[in-house]
Amino acid sequence: MDLGIRGKRALVCGASKGLGRGCAEALAGEGVHVTIVARTAEALEATAEDIRRRHGATVTAVACDITTPEGRALALAACPQPDIVVTNAGGPPPGDFRNWTRDDWIAAVDANMLTPIELIKATVDGMMDRGFGRIVNITSSSVKAPIDILGLSNGARSGLTGFVAGLARKTVARGVTINNLLPGQFDTDRLKKTMGAAATSSGKPLDEVMDARRKQIPAQRFGTAEEFGAVCAFLCSMQAGYMTGQNVLLDGGNYPGTY
């Protein structure tokens, strides 16, 4: 299927590895000019070169901290009029809420709620003026089913979800959709970190904890960044123009609810 976005410009955050990279790869494969952002310059440039080599795409790498005003300014200077924005920032650490300070909460809200909102604020009006825009926020399955040790993430990402629910209904008439992608358990460094905390808490080996978790998923496996990126690319497509304000769950069937 031709997604109709060849030649569009995309800003993809947290794209040096994991799910962000999966989204950048999928968009580049559709002929999108991609600007990728992450904190570590060496890893980011290696990713950019690999995507260029594999897809023949135009890829610009901007090493910055997207959670800061300075970082967002650098990213938007490199991609000043994006047609597509994929927001993504590293999730806050797992733990017990009794140990979290106000500063911990502020950092989580800043990275996982306010940063996406600031990126939307900086780009959505230009998208509406041009009559096309796609904003995809990478959030978490914890928005649907909270995870007890990820309370910081549960709270911050749910706040973003509520904000998007209102705004997405205002922008769609002018060709701009805003949707959230909710990953379940994907084979990423983030999963290993979360499982590492669970292993430490239980006193069990990491491999044993991960295998037990994998077997709980109806698909009997963890997801891949490639299939996550493919769904992101579809949400950015011309065909998805009637889809906005949605929380798209990718979890191998793990969420047990009907709705």
What this model shows, in words?
- The protein is an alpha/beta fold and 259 residues long.
- It has two domains: 9-184 and 225-249, NAD(P)-binding Rossmann-like Domain (Rossmann fold, 3-Layer(aba) Sandwich); 185-222, no CATH class.
- It has helices at residues 18-29, 41-55, 69-78, 102-130, 151-171, 189-202, 206-216, 225-235; strands at 9-12, 33-38, 59-63, 84-87, 133-138, 176-183, 247-250.
- A seven-stranded parallel β-sheet has the order 3-2-1-4-5-6-7, with helices on both faces.
- Helix 1 crosses helix 8 (225-235).
- 41% of the residues are buried.
- InterPro entries: NAD(P)-bd_dom_sf, SDR, SDR_fam.
Order of helices and strands: EHEHEHEHEHEHHHE
* Proportion of beta-strand residues: 5-15%
Strand order of the largest sheet: 3-2-1-4-5-6-7
Q: Describe the largest sheet.
A: 7 strands, parallel
Name of the level-1 CATH class of the largest domain: Alpha Beta
Shape: globular
Helix/sheet category: alpha/beta
Helix fraction, binned, reads: 40-55%
CATH superfamily descriptor of the largest domain = NAD(P)-binding Rossmann-like Domain
Number of strands: 7
Low-confidence spans: pLDDT under 50, at least 5 residues? none
Give the number of helices. Answer: 8
The CATH architecture designation of the largest domain is: 3-Layer(aba) Sandwich
Distance between the termini: 29 Å
InterPro entries: NAD(P)-bd_dom_sf, SDR, SDR_fam
Protein name: SDR family oxidoreductase
Family: Belongs to the short-chain dehydrogenases/reductases (SDR) family.
Pfam family, one: adh_short_C2
